[in-house]
Amino acid sequence: MEFRYLGTSDLRVSAxxxxxxxxxxxxxxxxxxxxxxxVETAVRAGINFFDTAAVYGHGLSETFLGRALRxxxxxxxxxxxxxxxxxxxxxxxxxxxxKRCLExxxxxxxxxxxxxxxxxxxxxxxxxxMRALEELVHQGVIRHIGLSDFPVELxxxxxxxxxxxxxxxxxxxxxxxxxxxxxxxxxxxxAYGLSVIAWSPLAKGALTGKYTPENLPRFDDVRRGSAxxxxxxxxxxxxxVRLLEEIGSRHGKTPSQVALNWLLRTSDxxxxxxxxxxxxxxxxxxxxxxxxxxxxxxxxxxQASSRVVISRVVW
Length: 315
Description:
By secondary structure, the protein is α/β, with parallel strands linked by helices. It has helices at 32-44, 60-72, 91-105, 126-138, 152-160, 185-192, 231-251, 255-266, 279-286, 295-306; strands at residues 3-5, 12-14, 18-19, 49-51, 79-84, 110-115, 142-148, 167-173, 195-199, 270-272. The longest helix has 21 residues, at 231-251.
């Protein structure tokens, strides 16, 4: 496994982490023993970075992750990141919400607390919630502060509110066919020492090779309504998938492993957090690290993915 520091912090995390949105009713891992097996496999594969959020399964994800880490006796060996949603960002709710996260995780500290999204529907001043998070660092309750789904302008605004602490990360959607983060966020992160935590690094499974234009997600699958799987969009994505399969065959790697490796090779500031529903998927994701595409292979994927135009106007 490869390791990278989160921003300028002392948090040394695996380049491939584990996202745990799937421990919820949205993605289907609602059995604790299945979740524990996924966490245990991740640790055996060298993964030490686990990302969750208060809203995942209305707390179920945090509960499962925390319990698994306790039962495995590895809490001190891993980095746990969670998030407070935009609705929880009044000063008193930052404190109350963090307390609830600690209780569900069964821990007395959180390595990385992230603001899940800006308070779009409320009028919480940016400095109110950022200063509250900074106070929690002073209390020893959280170790570092990060953001999620913040554009550069709001990253700068949030950062300017901090007096003694630095931001260490911005978590954003980033994968081989959804590359808008490269326009502003990644250059900014590289310039100012932030890490970019890539969520949906496999484009909700569109890059795994599981789907074809003739075999799209079922109507009862949460992915079915995603623009990625609209036939007009997926027909373009599938050309990239075929190239991932071709390149992967040369290295003995799967399309998922090639797609994740491309992200890691594109910027040293990037850490990926793919989800997994089975121990096998965890092992596959971990296999994205520890090897490298050739420049020619990286460039072919760069060129092929640059031709993909994802339209979200699908109705």
